[in-house]
Every structure is written in structure tokens, then in C-alpha cells.
Amino acid sequence: MNDVAAAAGVALKTVSRVVNDEPGVNPATADRVRAAIERLGYRRNDSAATLRSGRTASIGLVIEDAADPFYSGLSRAVEDVALRHGYLMFTGSSSEDPARERELVLAFCARRVDGLVIVPAGNDHEYLTPELDAGISAVFADRPSGSGRDLDTVLCDNAGGARSGVAHLIAHGHRRIGFIADAPSIFTATQRWYGYREALTQAELPYDPALIAMGPPEPTRVLADVERLLALPDPPTALFTGNGRTTVATLRALNRPIALVGFDDFDLADLLGITVVAQNPAGLGKAAADLLFSRLSGNRDPAQRRELPTQLIARGSGEGVFRLF
Amino acid sequence: MNDVAAAAGVALKTVSRVVNDEPGVNPATADRVRAAIERLGYRRNDSAATLRSGRTASIGLVIEDAADPFYSGLSRAVEDVALRHGYLMFTGSSSEDPARERELVLAFCARRVDGLVIVPAGNDHEYLTPELDAGISAVFADRPSGSGRDLDTVLCDNAGGARSGVAHLIAHGHRRIGFIADAPSIFTATQRWYGYREALTQAELPYDPALIAMGPPEPTRVLADVERLLALPDPPTALFTGNGRTTVATLRALNRPIALVGFDDFDLADLLGITVVAQNPAGLGKAAADLLFSRLSGNRDPAQRRELPTQLIARGSGEGVFRLF
DNA sequence: TTGAAAGCGTTACCAG
DNA sequence: CTGGTAACGCTTTCAA
Q: Which of A26, A74, A296, B43 is deepest in the core (most CB within 10 A)?
């Protein structure tokens, strides 16, 4: 910038004004400066600007896995909002590891991001307190935090969605419905389990623990659980699966038709004729990012918790019409 | 850092040494410094470190769309390599818009990233020259650049993959094979088209332009093209589709069985029984990132171009066994 | 409309 | 092993 100033025959500050589109520069002078910038191939060093001004115009996003379609949809939505605000985005995948989540978040904070969107892998967010005190804003998406300061949170209606999916199966005459989902340690899995039970209660159906299969999302585990459920003396006539990965693993594990509704929509579910309770990953990301940017522009309201609706999409597998076998 | 130094009763420089794990600090002194750091909740400001040292320990990744499974797989692989090296990653989606690609890249450069992995949306990368001169490393992934300096490039074997897929259909007796793909302006589409023609030539089959349908990846366009091909007086008995999105759009457009092989594997292709030529997005990302980090650690060899192999996975649709209809 | 000087928080360099 | 001082490239503040 010094060189540019010298080349253009103006003061450093004037170059700064031109670079930042600040008002109050003679157009002719500005043109001269811009010519010098072009000629010297000058590019502003944002680190220096950050150091002085304290604002980086960047945010950090921590998700579970960038390669998972649900989180990549969320990620793209956050990115779009950020870019519209002129912000850049750091991304990191926690792989469901609280320590890695923490490292990523703190590394982003050391880079002095202005804000964070976090899909919590862990439950404890005390480690955020010093950063929040230092003025960094943060929003939780997809899952809430169990501890630490009360922060903006955007979730989907997990319990309600599961309730509607299970109620749909009940409406089609099913009385024994298997529930296959992630481990209860995962917030969303527990909420959907809760919705499953609510639907049974509303229909005055008994709750049978033998029909519940919650555990890690590995295909082999799901396969074993599907086989266990179907081998019961009084087997389920329908299955409700707790998320996209589980639905797909279940489909791969099945070798004969059975009524099925899955939480999460996924690509090609339409061609396979799978009835799903769809949530909206992009909507979740957009809502979280919008909330973050309202904080960044000064919103000091109490922390809010938003819950996005789900949508039941009937495609056959929940209504006794099977394409897959 | 000043406060920490005061609290620990040492000089600024000593704190810096402790923070950066530099050798030559008395362990007792170091402990005292660390205690002060803990007590004051101090976090190093990376912007200032960057300003002084010139290294940011961060890279930028520009892909076509973070929500696309192919690019999200690539993205996750790049991220893993970066994190293993202690680097953070900026991500941006170009949406196939050269101007947006350029803006993202230059914004990353203004943040003084040490390196870039770029999936080119545009063909002209002259704009990179000043950045490269300034010492930033860059690697192209998935597609090469048409102009600008010769840079490391990682591609998959597009022509060879298409050739093997089409040859597979020919081996199963097909003599008229439709080719549905992205517009010829996309490098990968053109390469695969080339492979398609090679396979015909090798089998001494005629090339019929009426069987070619290249254009934007919109479902409506694909639908129209599928209908056009099937309505030909001498319609194709098989289709070769040029990428994952096109394959899925084609499947949605079909209403009766026809032999089909698609470029790109995708989730659930196994359940749908779709034969594909699989490329490896994670492998592409890893190779590109490895190449970038070898440059960052001083490798000054001439730019290299790597081509990753593809793999034909037969699942039925290419062999006359259909699950979908 | 323009400029000069101070200072952001760190690391580099040289001295002790 | 430890410390002082300069400097990184910019923005802020104040003055002209």
C-alpha cells in the first residue's frame, strides 16, 4: 500500500480510502490510485486490516461430516448467506468427536472469525465462554448444546416429524412398528424416539422395547438389528428408521418387502418409492446463518430457539406399495 | 500477550516462545507463562502472527457446489489432509460461474492463504499470475485450466472411463448407444464424449450424431433429450450417461427398461442396480491436497498432471437385468 | 478532500 | 536462556 501511495503520488491514507471505497476522495485522485494498484498488482492484506480493525469478515462452520448429504446441504446454505454478506467461511468436520469440534472451534477463534455456526458433536460448550466474552457470536444448528451459555439454536421438529411418520404407518393399519435409529446419546435420535412413543400413545398402542433398535450408524449394526426384529416371534409389520443413513442401511439389509417410513429425505428416495419425513437441511443452514448475521449486525435479543417443520412425503413404502422387491 | 508477559513477570518475547513451542525456554519459566495464559484466558491472535510471519496455515478450496455429493466427497478429503498438516480450510462454491470462482480465489488470496485447491469453473486463470508470483501455491482438481501458468493438475481418466463403459455395453450386444451428458463446454463432458467415440471406433461401429445429447444438467433438458432419443426411427438400445446428475435425471425420465451405464457412482446405485463407471472423488481430493502440501513444503519440480483410474461396476442395468421397472 | 502519526498483536533480529 | 526493539501492512484518529 505504501508502494502504491508512492507510485500514485498520494498519502497512504488516500490509498486506504480508495481500496475501502470510503467516501471523500476526488474521482481523479481515485483513478490515479486505481491505476497504480493495477500497475503494481497490489492486493490488500486482510490480515493487517483484521489486526487493526478487529473484523475479519469470515465465519467458521463446524459440521459432523462435509461428505454427508445432509450436512453438505446445510453447509452450502450457510455459505450462500455468508457470501451474500461479503463473508468467507472456514469449514471443518468434527466426525462426531467433541475434542475435534473443540479444536476446530478454537482454531477458528484464533483466526478471529466474527461468528460460528456449530453442529455440536459434544454436549459441553463451556470452552466457548471466553470466546463469547471476547465478542464472537455463535449459533447451534441441528442439535442444541447441553451446557455453557444459552445461545441461539435452530433445530428441526424431530419429535413432531417422527410422530407424524409413525402415525402415518398406524393409519395404514400397522400395530407393531420397529424403530431403528442412532444411539440415544445423539440428541436427534432421542427426540425421534420420543415422537415414536407419542404416536403410539395417541393411538393407544402398547410400547414394546423389543421393537427398539438404537445404536451406531454402521451398516453391520443396522443389518443385525433388522434381522433381530424380523426374527421376533411377533415381528413388526412396519419399520420407522431414524435418519437417512439408517434408512439406506435398512433398505440394504432387507430382503423382502415391509412397510417403511424413514426420517430424512434423500436423493433417489423418489425412484425407490420410499416414504419419508423430510427435513430441510438447506433451510436449517439458512436459518442458522441468518440468525448469526443478525447477531453480527448488533441484535442483542435473548437467545432464541427455532424449530423448523418437517414434511411427510408418501411415495409407496409407507402405504404398502413396493418398488424395491 | 503483553498482559501475559506482565502477569508472568517475563518479556513479551518469552511468552511468544512458549506459545510457539520454540526451544530454549527454561521449563520453570514456561510453566509460569502457561499458568498466566490459563489464568488470563489468553488466545493468540493469528492475524497478527500472519501479518508478521507471512504464513497463515490455511488453504482455500473452490469447488463447483458444496452440496453436490461428488464435490462434497472431494472437499472432505482435502479437509482431512489439511487438518493432518495443521491447516484450516476456507471453502467456496463457484456454481460453475467463472467470475465467482475468481472472486472467491482472490478473496482467499487477500486472506493470505498459503495454498489453493481449485475446481476450475472458468478456463482462463491469468488472474492467478500475480498471486503465484507472490508465492501462493495452487493445484487444479477434476478439470485442467485452459490458460495461465502451468500448474499441478489432478484429473480422473475421463476418456478411458467412458470408453470402458461404452465398450461394456457393446460387449453386451448393443450397437446403437445414446450419449447423454453435460454441455461440451465442460471439460469432463468433452473427454467422456471422446471416450465414447473411441469405444465405437474400436468396435468398428458407426458414430451417429443423432444419438448425442449434450447440454445443461437441468432435468427438463435431460427429459426432453431422452424422449427425443427414444422416439428416433432407429432408437438406441442402450444409454451412456455422462455424470451422476445426468444419470439420475435420465432414470427419472425413463418409463421403460433400457440398458444403461452411467459415469460416476452414486449412493443407492447399488439398490437400483445401476451399472456405473466409478470415479473416486475422495481420491481426487486427497491427491490434489497431497500435491499442494508437497509444494508448500518446498517441492519445486515442474508442474505435474496426474490421472486417476476409474472402475466399472456392473450391477445389472448394463447387462440387461433391471430392478427399476 | 487529503495527510501525518499512532498503534493493532505478533514475530524477527540482534544483544545480553 | 532471556530481553529489547523494530517491523509487518493496515485502519483509526486527528489535523490541515
A: A74
